[in-house]
Amino acid sequence: MKVAVIGTTGYGGGELIRILHNHPIFRIHSIHSTREEMPITEEFPHLENIFEDSLKKVDSEKIAEDADLVFLATPSGVSGKLAQQFYGKDIQIVDLSGDLRIKSAEEYQKWYKHDCVNEETLADAVYGLSEWNRENIINARLLANPGCYPTAALLGLGPVVAAGLIEPTGIIIDGKSGVSGAGKSLSKTTAFAEMNDNFRIYKVNQHQHIPEIEQQLKLWDGHITPVTFSTHLIPITRGIMTTAYVQLKKELTTAEVIELYQETYLNHPFVRVRKENQYPSVKEVCGSNFCDIGLNVDQRTGRLTIVSVIDNLMKGAAGQAVQNANLMNGIDEKAGLNFIPIYP
Ligand SMILES: NC(=O)C1=CN([C@@H]2O[C@H](COP(=O)(O)OP(=O)(O)OC[C@H]3O[C@@H](n4cnc5c(N)ncnc54)[C@H](OP(=O)(O)O)[C@@H]3O)[C@@H](O)[C@H]2O)C=CC1
Ligand SMILES: CC(=O)N[C@@H](CCC(=O)OP(=O)(O)O)C(=O)O
User: Fold this and answer.
1) Where is each Semialdehyde dehydrogenase NAD-binding domain found (predicted)?
2) Which atom of ligand 2 is nearest to the CA of 312?
3) What is the pLDDT of residue 12?
4) What SS3 state is found at 31?
5) Is the beta carbon of 233 within 6 A of some atom in ligand 2?
6) Reported pTM
7) Which of 98, 119, 237, 312 has the fewest CB atoms within 10 Å, counting from its CB?
8) Is ligand 1 within 6 A of the CB of residue 80?
9) Whose alpha carbon is nearest atom 2 of ligand 2?
10) How many domains does the chain have?
11) Is 291 considered catalytic here?
12) Whether 171 and 32 share a structural domain
């Protein structure tokens, strides 16, 4: 199958190349960004002698004629416009941005601060939380790949929320991300002198992933009320940890909760649930498509602490995008994603 990647010179696009280069079914047919004709090795010298194609113009007619599937690894706003151009053509679309995830146009405008794609396109987009929306993903032509923080937070919360085991009010989620989560553009907040030896909170109560997290939680339990979600930048390159705090409705032991998670994710190879008293760290998933989860019930407060870790560029972006593209095409969901995490 021929695939095209738009936004190849970015961090998410670069990660797509790393995965797709060894994929057994997908072949990279063309790569694109605003810098047409430039060999990709000018931006990514690490690809020298491995993959040296040149970037091509973004021509949606031609891409749709030549390729079977297109990955949009482009910024919010750009992705929406491109999705609109490809929509209705004979090509599958997997968008890594936030432009197709929020079903309410009003909510999208409120959090993303610009106009949303048209209603018809939005209605057709399938939310690609791979482990939880498989039936719809299998039939999707237009796929909204989840955000990095929502992936970690939702995989962590899903089993207890869907089972109705927690109070629907007062959910708190604390997220920490490495700086590659912000993309490759230069900015003061991600500059070395700002981030090295530092740790900061950002977008307090204003993060664009809040409506995405709430939308999915409400599908699991319609009684869920607004969540508190805080994001922090930490001085690492890759990796996200989310820690969620939820109140259990009834007394449960940590062992019982772990059993529920193990059963829920039994047939989902990319989610690994830690044993009692073991908690994951970001290094344990770095470079891989795994989401590792650790759990603990505090018997004093009746609260459950849920720790999830992912690599933001893999399960949080390109890895889950390929997992979804596999599912959309009836391919083994692990195809091309059989990476052992890079440790230490
Ligand atoms: N980084 C992460 O961990 C995650 C990112 N995402 C989302 O994935 C998308 C890509 O993110 P990321 O790779 O980090 O971003 P980057 O800023 O690193 O890369 C953006 C890419 O988009 C290209 N681009 C920008 N404007 C256009 C345009 N008008 N036409 C064609 N190409 C364009 C750039 O190419 P050039 O400069 O060569 O023109 C570059 O290749 C974003 O929507 C982001 O929100 C989602 C989850 C996690
Ligand atoms: C560290 C960092 O800055 N991360 C970015 C993640 C952005 C992202 O992935 O955006 P979408 O999912 O909305 O496309 C942020 O917090 O905004």
Assistant:
1) 2-140
2) 9
3) 98
4) strand
5) yes
6) 0.98
7) 119
8) no
9) 182
10) 2
11) no
12) no
Same domain, 105 and 217: no
Q: Which residues of 74-97 are buried (b: 16+ CB within 10 A; e: fewer)?
A: bbbebbbebbbbbbeeebbbbbbb
Q: Would residue 138 count as lying in a domain?
A: no
First CA to last CA distance, the chain: 35
The b/e string for 42-64 (b: 16+ C-beta within 10 A; e otherwise) is ebbeebeeebebebbebebeebb
- 343 domain residue, yes or no: no
Q: Comparing C-alpha atoms, which of 92, 33, 23 is closest to residue 58?
A: 33
Give residue 223's pLDDT.
98
Please tell me the distance between residue 317's alpha carbon and the centre of ligand 1 in angstroms.
11
Per-residue model confidence as pLDDT tens digits over 101-123: 999 999 999 999 999 999 999 99
Does one domain contain both 104 and 163? no
> Could you give the angle at the alpha carbon of 10 between the alpha carbons of 6 and 12, nearest 5°?
80
Task: Determine the structural domain holding residue 188 and report its residue range.
Answer: 149-312
Residue 240 CB partners (closer than 8 Å, separation 6+)? 148, 149, 152, 175, 176, 177, 178, 181, 282, 309, 310, 311, 312, 316
Rounded to an integer, the average pLDDT of 284-296 is 99
Q: Is the CB of 11 under 6 A from ligand 1?
A: yes
- Tell whether 153 and 34 lie within a shared domain: no
User: 112 in a domain, yes or no?
Assistant: yes
Q: Are residues 171 and 108 in the same domain?
A: no
At 214-236, the pLDDT tens digits run 999 999 999 999 999 999 999 99
- Do 108 and 187 lie in a common domain? no
Q: Which two tokens stand for residue 284?
A: 């344990």
Q: Are residues 155 and 303 in the same domain?
A: yes
- The verdict on 39 and 112 lying in the same domain is yes
Residue 33 Cβ < 6 Å to ligand 1: yes
78 CA: nearest ligand 1 atom: 29
Query: Which CATH number goes with the domain that contains 257?
Result: 3.30.360.10
